[in-house]
Write a structure and sequence with these properties.
Keywords: Cytoplasm, Repressor, Translation regulation. This protein is α+β, with helices and mostly antiparallel strands. It contains four helices and six strands.
Length: 115
């Protein structure tokens, strides 16, 4: 699956799972690890875990095998590594603390979650 299609699939799944404040960061050229970083918030640790679980299940149904899932035991911050797309599903306070969006160069390109 192409990176752009995978990004769209992830955003659709996050929206369908009622994730909040979804941001898509285009990190091509800024990262050699991934093309898109998607950051979303959950409303509780249970919701964060459920969103991540639904995302993994959905991409597997489309033939994409996640490279890794980290943090689902505590569910304050779950990272789902899909290769060309890395999804971070976080509790709002965790997201505020780490401010992943601000870790990148001021010239990073934000891609609207609307597609």
């Amino acid at each position: 699956m192409e990176a752009e299609q995978l990004k769209d699939l992830v955003v659709d799944q996050l929206e369908g799972s009622k994730a909040k404040d979804i941001k898509v960061l285009n990190v091509k050229g800024l990262s050699s690890v991934t093309d898109y970083m998607i950051i979303a918030s959950g409303t509780s640790s249970r919701h964060v875990k459920s969103v991540a679980h639904n995302l993994v299940s959905s991409v597997k149904d489309e033939g994409v095998q996640p490279l890794g899932v980290e943090g689902d035991d505590v569910a304050e911050w779950v990272l789902v590594d899909l290769g060309d797309v890395v999804a971070h599903i976080m509790m709002p306070q965790t997201r505020d603390f780490y401010q992943l969006e601000k870790l990148w160069d001021p010239n990073w390109k934000e891609v609207s979650a609307q597609h």
